[in-house]
Amino acid sequence: MMKRSEDSKYLSWFGNRRPVRLLLLAALLTLGILHFSDLCGFVTVLWRSASPLIAGAALAYVLNVIVDKFEACWFPHTKKKWLNMLRTPVSTLLAVLVILGVVLLIVLAVIPGLVEAFTLLAKEVPHYVADLKAWALEKTVNFPTVHDTVANLVFDWNAIGESLTRYAVSGWSGIVSSTVTVIGAVTNGISNVFITLIFAMFMLLGRKQLTRQANRVMTAAMSESRLEKTKNVLNALNRSFSGFIVGQGANSLLLGVLTTVMMLICGFPYAVIVGVINGTTGMIPVIGGYIGAIVSAFLVFTAAPGQTLLFLILLIVLQSLLGNLVYPRLVGGSIGLPGLWVLAAVIVGSGLGGITGMLIGVPLAATAYELVKAWVARREKEKTEEQTSEEITEDV
Fold first, then answer.
1. Spatial contact of 252 and 330, defined as CB atoms under 8 Å apart
2. pLDDT in tens, 280-319
3. Whole-angstrom distance, CA of residue 385 vs CA of residue 396
4. Buried/exposed 277-305: b ≥16 CB within 10 Å, e otherwise
5. What is the model's pTM?
């Protein structure tokens, strides 16, 4: 009897999954600590191998926002089968063409302008240096030592050009010796880009089937209450990230258009190019404005140095107005997050994760805000019902 009782206790303990799970977790943690360096190496290799697929999934999610807009406009009330069958492929193709068109516009508008600006700067640098030397000689008349030093400064631009040429030629041997490595890196990068694009296309075309499969897996693995909570969190994340993409894109487009209009009205050079640059860098919260301002100021300086300061002042005023008045309302309105929390999410996200933290901080904060808001509303409703039932009980 004693042996049978001990066996039943052992079987009862073994049949309970919680102790087994705790032991397995403790064993895994111990192995992870003992082989931490090997684990880090494995995670690094795994991340490097899966990075094209992760980038493809992220690209597919961004494109999916555009695809949904096109699908909503593609014969929404039609009953013809062939039109319904073409809805997803045509919408996916149009979304890809839109993205490629934007990239092509950026390349064709920005690169020629930068090449022209550098060429013009190279021609004008000797004149700028001569003017600066004349100004320094005028201001240092009362300081003989400094005045003589400035007067003895001579820039032989031909010699400088020859030195740069010799430097480039001497470095050419190193470039040639590492040609195989460079070609390998470029080939690997190009292959990763193609893998990313192909994987994104497959995910877009099969996103409905992937959604059904994910729902089946979650339904089989989770209880009904946990499944409902998980779906609520995922839906909140989807609404926040898609709204953020739409709001951030609209804000960037508005910044680019207003910058171009401002420059055309004031007669600044490179109006279209600067508008495209600021619209593109505007996709990066906070820091994108500084990047756009530096590149834009350089372009304006090469063509009209005397207008650079005025341009910077006007651009900073425009970016400040959009950043403090329009951006929180536009992006916050798209994701349901008040402007104060948008700014707070950008600041905290940038401190924790840099540019990536800025990009995901706002939608994550919007998700947390929505979930907390729903929880508060549910708790208030429960308390109201409890108070009402108590009052009814007291009356009875």
1. no
2. 888 776 667 788 888 888 888 877 878 888 998 988 888 8
3. 17
4. bbbbbbebbeebbeebbebbbebbbbbee
5. 0.65
